[in-house]
Design a protein that fits this description.
By secondary structure, this protein is an all-alpha fold. 71% of the residues lie in helices and 0% in strands. It has 6 helices and no strands. Helix 3 crosses helix 4. 11% of the residues are buried.
Length: 150
C-alpha cells in the first residue's frame, strides 16, 4: 500500500511527516487505562484487599507506557543512524568526503530530502550556519522523497 501511495503522491514539505494511526490509537488507549488504574487505586485506598491489585495494575500500566516509549525511541535512533550512514555515503560518492561533523542527526535527516543538485551546498550551509532542520526542509527546491521513514 505504501508503494502504491508513493507512486500516486509527490512528497514535499507539507506531506512528508508520517503518522501511524494505530500507534497513536494504542497510546491513547494506554493513557486511558493508566488513568483508569489511577482512579481504581484511589477508590481502593481504604480497602486493603483491593489495594494491592490496584497498585499492581497501575505499576504494570506505567511499565507498559515506558516500554512503548522506549520502543519508539530506540527504533527512531536506529533509523537515524541508518540515515546518517546513507547520507555520509551519498556525500562521499559525490565529493570524496564524509559529511561535516558539525551536522546534527536532525540536520542530516532533513538533508536526506534534498536532491543531489542541492545536497552538497545545503549540507555545507547547514554546517556553517547551524540551520534548523525545519528550515533546511523548507528551503529544498527539488524534493527527494523518503517513503520508508517511520
Amino acid at each position: 500500500m505504501i508503494v502504491r501511495m508513493a507512486e500516486q503522491l509527490q512528497q514535499d514539505f507539507s506531506n512528508h511527516v508520517r503518522r501511524v494511526p494505530g500507534f497513536l490509537a494504542l497510546a491513547l488507549v494506554l493513557l486511558l487505562v493508566f488513568l483508569g488504574a489511577l482512579v481504581n487505586l484511589y477508590k481502593s485506598w481504604g480497602d486493603h484487599e483491593r489495594l494491592y491489585s490496584a497498585a499492581l495494575i497501575l505499576v504494570l500500566t506505567g511499565c507498559v507506557f515506558v516500554t512503548a516509549g522506549y520502543a519508539r525511541t530506540f527504533a527512531l535512533k536506529a533509523q537515524d543512524r541508518g540515515i546518517r550512514a546513507e547520507e555520509n555515503l551519498r556525500s562521499y560518492v559525490m565529493t570524496g568526503k564524509l559529511l561535516d561533523s558539525r551536522l546534527t542527526n536532525s540536520q542530516i535527516a532533513a538533508l536526506r530530502f534534498a536532491s543531489d543538485a542541492e545536497f552538497i551546498d545545503m549540507a555545507n550551509q547547514a554546517a556553517e550556519k547551524g540551520t534548523a532542520p525545519v528550515e533546511i526542509k523548507k528551503s529544498i527546491k527539488s524534493w527527494r522523497a523518503d517513503w520508508d521513514r517511520v
